[in-house]
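Dear Dr. H.,

I hope your travels went smoothly. While you were away I took the liberty of generating a structure for the chain from your last submission, since the lab meeting agenda had it listed for discussion. I wanted you to have the full record in hand beforehand rather than looking at slides cold. The sequence, exactly as received, is reproduced here:
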Amino acid sequence: MHQQSHFFAHLARMQLIKRWPLMRSVSNENISEHSLQVAFVAHALGVIKNKKFSGNVNPEKLAVLGMYHDTSEVLTGDLPTPVKYYNPYIAKEYKKIEAAAEEKLLSMVPEEFREDFEPFLISGKCSEEEHLMVKQADCICAYLKCLEELSAGNHEFAAAKRNLEKTLQQRDSKEMRYFLRTFANSFELTLDEIS
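The corresponding predicted structure, in token form, is as follows:
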């Protein structure tokens, strides 16, 4: 008998999980939309690293890691950053919850394919360099969201932008700086200005 899997039905629910739940947004964003943007940016960081800075990463793998980086949130929801990192105890316990959710999602994949999905679903299964680059892409995307919101006159995102600028400095790399210099300013412009 053929075993049924609920894996992709769970992933389809990514579109129902709102990001920035404590913030008033001009434009709402869900984790499905965010994950696609992270995949785009992670791929670009890989291409930039390889072509401009003598890197040797797989941009396509980075894109897939970006697609799956928040999938555990279909089981946990998106816990706001100020709550998640309120203190070290909460952060540590939430990591355990995320790990359990990742394992639960992986268990939904038919057994014969689990080893193929595991590197994308389970934290720590990719290289440290790949992990860092996806974290950079994730941070860049949050920063770009702040630029969009601020350019639309929503000052709710001013403090988030300042915090993300600090995080970007901590995660600094040549490819990340190149990406931001080349692409970020466009997020502050209107459609007519970028056309």
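Two observations you may find useful: The mean pLDDT is 93. The two ends are 55 Å apart (CA to CA).

With kind regards,
E. W.
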